[in-house]
Amino acid sequence: MENLTFLVLGLGPGAILAAFGLSLAVFYRSSGVVNFATGAIGMYGAYTYYGLRSAGSLVNPVFGLPALVKLSGPMPAWLALLITALVSVVLGLLCYAIVFRPLRHARALAKAVASVGVLLVLEGAVSLRLGTDPVSVPQIFPAGSLTLSSLRVPENGLWAAGVAVVLLIAAMVIYNYTRFGLVTRAVVESEKGSVIVGVSPERVALANWGLGALIAGLAGAFISPLVAVTPSGFTLLVVPAVAVALIGGFSNLPVIVISGLVLGMLQSNLSYQASQSWYPQWLGTGAQDLLPLIAVLIVLMVRGSALPTRGMLSVQDLPPARQPHHVGIKGAIWFIVGIACLFALGGSYRAALTTSLILAIIALSFVVVTGYVGQISFAQYSLVGAAALLLAEMTTVWKIPFPAAPILAALAVGLLGIIIGLPALRVRGVNLAIVTIVMAVAINSVYFDNDRLNGGINGGQVTGPTLFGLNLEIGSGGSYPRIQFGLLCLVVLTLIALGVANLRRSRLGVAMLAVRANERSAAANGINVARVKLAGFAIAACIAGLGGALLGYQQTSVSGDSFDPLSGILLFGICYIAGITTITGAVAAGLIGSNGLIYVVINRQISFGSYYLLITGLILIFAIIRHPEGLGGTIQEPLERLARRVLRRKPPSATPALGAAAVGAPSAPEKVV
Fold this sequence. Notes:
- The chain is an all-alpha fold.
- It folds into two domains: 2-141 and 154-303, ABC transporter involved in vitamin B12 uptake, BtuC (Orthogonal Bundle); 327-647, ABC transporter involved in vitamin B12 uptake, BtuC (Orthogonal Bundle), CATH 1.10.3470.
- It is 66% helix and 3% strand.
- The chain has helices spanning 2-9, 11-31, 38-55, 77-100, 108-130, 155-177, 179-189, 191-196, 201-223, 238-247, 253-273, 287-303, 327-344, 347-372, 380-396, 404-421, 429-448, 451-454, 483-505, 507-517, 519-524, 529-555, 565-579, 583-592, 597-606, 612-626, 631-647, and strands spanning 57-59, 68-70, 145-148, 151-154, 466-467, 470-471.
- It has a two-stranded antiparallel sheet with strand order 1-2. It has a two-stranded antiparallel sheet with strand order 3-4. The chain has a two-stranded antiparallel ribbon with strand order 5-6.
- Strand 1 and strand 2 form a beta hairpin.
- The chain is globular, with a radius of gyration of 25 Å.
């Protein structure tokens, strides 16, 4: 009976996943966007409903004006929901018109990164306007319970499930029995054919964005009384919702809703099973976040691709990863510049430069796995956190000295990277990005938040590095930050950068680029595609692990809370914009990353720390719209032309191709909706 009770208790959370999964499907089928901002749109809807219901005030996102615009006294639920629906539709229309319409022919990865920018803008704007303290929203549904035999069923959960079913029925009617639904299906099948017969794909996508935002906003409003509403509280709900949408192939709406309800019920039941004697206690409560991962893996392994394809007019690709030249000389020059900067700067500026050096190391892991191999991984920052926690345990519990401890931590994380890379043998593109972000959430839940696996070291101290009696610690108090630690980070960054540059020039690097260009062509030319992919994931994970170890030494106290998956997506977006195929781009990403040198310099001048999410999101959106392939590919070509003109040299000849998959050849277009 307890099992059945907890299954029924999961109807409420399941309805949340079902509604957001439904919204994700609407966004994707209309414009090919895996909208990571779906939860943020729901959050905005929740705050809108809260303001109207409690005080009759409408949230005003325009800075310089009052945060809340008084309309009347506290509104009844039906009127507050109606206005919330209208606001959500307007928000969806603005998102498409301003952000995603200019990206309609960009690759799915650029659209996904742009949706991260929208997420940051919405979360940052609400945080600045309304604060981050949780708010309590008045109830919409009855808060009592029904008694069926000996089973007590909460009414709000049943009502929430009913709302999800109503949204499903409405969506099915719209898409199956109206002209709008027929036109939408025609655009999905072939944009070119739709244009020929006079249908505007842009108008269809605009209308669908309004509909998708309507579903997400209403879902946020309906669930707001059931949870503590905060600006960041809804954002991670998109991860299990994406899993639900994948189960339905982003097109089968009944399967999406049913999967959401079932997944919520199973997660609720697992919370009960965690208290039973048979349950493996080492797993903690992490099994709840493992369920979406298991579901995603099963779907993708069976289908190979859970995202339906569309007839796009055109699609853009990643910029080429050009072969570096004069690696040793350039490395020596940058090393000398780094030493000069470390000695010239002091205090918080030196600490910020040290952070930039570490972030650049982490960014180099994206260069390898995405820039060279073409595989999208949103789990790199979770690997950084895993290495930091391992380092803390190795140095404080196992007493492993430097440099053995960071090397072992990096190698251990390299093995984890291979596991994360296994789905890449079957899936690719945005499908793989979804798998890796679900994996990142699972790592956070199963390892970071589980004292039985991390040895209770979460939040513990890290023993600083020493080598042959030389103190390399970052220091504390008046000696913080010690230049010795900055030099250590600079040496590690230089060695890894040289290694990544030589990897690009090696036979393995050429094979990686051949796989990125065209996997079938690479396989036809004798390249072991699976081995190359796994090698790329392993190398990138080891690099991320070394960055995580240095981050652990810098922070001196490690907590898994610092390595949430959304921070990893943000870092990926910064690397993508800075130039995810180049070492220079990785260094630039380190400089502009959170708490990096440029961040601190600007913050000292205008004190924009509280505006960081908002500003970063706006910059990310603007940069993606202007340069969907990333700034690295846009900037590097004119710089190379200038260098050739100054040196009066001819352009370097292309690296010999491996069969049809030339190093400089464009990658095969990614199929997107």
